[in-house]
Amino acid sequence: MNPKLDQMRAVALTAITALLTAGTALGATVAAKPSGPTIRLFPTTVIEDLRLTSTVAQEMETGLQEVIGRLDQQQQLYTESKCEGAEDDPGCQRMAKALGATYLEMLGIMEERLPDMEHTVNNTRLSLEKRLRSELGNKMTPWMLQETLLGNGPEGAPTPAPKLRGRSGMRLSERFKQYYQLVSTSGSRSDQSLAVLAADVYLDMEETSLLIARTREEIARATLMEQLNQSFGIVTPEMMEVVGGVKSILFGETGSDIQIAGPPPGQIQQAYRSPLEN
Amino acid sequence: MNIRQTIVQLAGPATVIAIGVILASCATTPPPCNGPTTTNLNAAIDQVQTSLANGCEAEFDRYFDDLLTIAEGDPKPENKRAFSEFLVWSNDQGLLSRRQAERYYNRYFNVKFMALEGDFNNCSHTCPRRDKVYRDMERELNAKERGLLKVSLDNDGYYRANELYQEVELVLEATCTACAAK
Fold first, then answer.
1. From the list A129, A145, A278, which residue is nearest B102 (CB)?
2. ipTM confidence
3. CA distance to A103, B148, B182, per residue, from A211 (Å)
């Protein structure tokens, strides 16, 4: 096992995991405005933080797009020149070094952009944390929370689609943009969907924040290792795997919302309401 | 002769005592408290009501379970009403308090979770014991599967309860993380 490769793999996988884990699919739903007290989970500051995070993520993607394109070309050239298995060939060694240098450039961009990402993600996380603690943690009993989630709408009113956490595969900036759009129109949304949305965004930020910090540490180590490796001029399959992974996550397909199975088919019945019902 | 007289003298009171014991034991023998013997829910409820009114109150849980099993054999939306009326009757008869009757009904036939009852805020009360809350909710979801889905064919109700369970888990996870970060 080559420790250099391990380091490189670790960086990339951590970066990918950070981005993947942060991927959250949210189904935009329109729900009726409920009666009862309104909970304030998304004040202007949180909305602004989300908008900023989306912008910073977009900047990181733009920066990476060009260097990843170049990596693709270099890799193609390396493969077409049949360099795999001919590592001692001086021409192949030059190509491998160039590839390694571009890889380093990619790591450099990530290193440069991640602090900004970390900062904005943390701001959003802290604002939401305060709101969740105050509005759902201190002002509500579990029963009130349940009633908020169920909504106090009229009998038989359609319930919003479930919004579950998971990998969306969408671009980082797209996801934050979607968050922003969802919460910036929160005036027309019901409390029950806002509570779920706030919880979802907060947990997403919590994980993203943690993983960005870990990724930054790994990038520093991997950069050092790749700098040392430059003298050997080796292209590793792991390196290509990493680039492929980052590419598919950052520029992957959008809108791949998780499909939730519907209820089993059954007859529509008249709702019976017991006098014992709470 | 003396021995015979002695035996006769002793046998008299012994017989009286024996008969007395037998009579006394007859008076205190508990009723058999058999479960319902029919597959018709309404008839089964009648049988259970008779048993409950005749000293089998301690078997309430078992009877309720028997009735659910019978209703599962003939699921329909009207079963909800039958169970509600049975529980209201149980309350009227003093077998259950109003609160107990509500708990029985809501545990099986309502979307809301009785496991989320509580008068204190989430940060102080729910978060420290949220694992237990989730376990209780999971058990209650199984009860709702039986009551809403298998007994009453209320697919939408059960689906909403299942969804609510997941939403509560997500929102509590976030809220409790926020509470702990204070």
1. A278
2. 0.81
3. 21, 42, 21
